[in-house]
Amino acid sequence: MNNTLRNILAVIFGIIIGGFVNMGVILISGSIIATPEGSDTTTMEGLIDSMHLFKPRHFIMPFLAHAIGTLTGAFIAAKFSTSKKLLSAIVVGVFFIFGGITNVFILPSPVWFSMIDVVAAYIPMAYLGARLAKG
Question: Taking CA 48 as the corner, what is the angle to CA 23 and CA 43, rounded to the nearest 5 degrees?
């Protein structure tokens, strides 16, 4: 298989698997840290309306979902790429950071969480994923 095609497929595969990991962490998060009383997180509208009820502990799992999903996706992209492994991982990180930035504009989350999430959950995790894939 052509190296470029394999690298592209590795990135796509990394994005898909990273997305599944992200969503998996989000789906189990309510059983680890209960959502605030009276909040509805089953729909985007309910989540937006409930954000004012969230305390700092409620942002741990979303951060972990973003970080672990990006880390996993970047690791897979780097592991299965034939060359330019760091670039493949960073492309996955950039894809996920666009989603994170979109969430900043959609969800009325606290500024401190938005900053930590955008700065720490994507590109650093993509870099770490690439480094782990080399090992």
Answer: 50
Q: What angle do CA 122, 125, 130 make, to 5 degrees?
A: 125
Question: Which band of pLDDT confidence, cut at 50, 70 and 90, is reported for residue 40?
Answer: confident
Which residues are within 8 A (CB) of 74 and not within 5 positions of it... i.e. 6 or more apart?
14, 18, 88, 89, 90, 92, 93, 125, 126, 127, 128, 129, 130, 133
Region 109-120: what's the mean pLDDT? 95
> Quick check: 135 pLDDT over 80?
no
DSSP string, 30-69: HHHSPPPTT---SSHHHHHHHGGG--GGGGHHHHHHHHHH
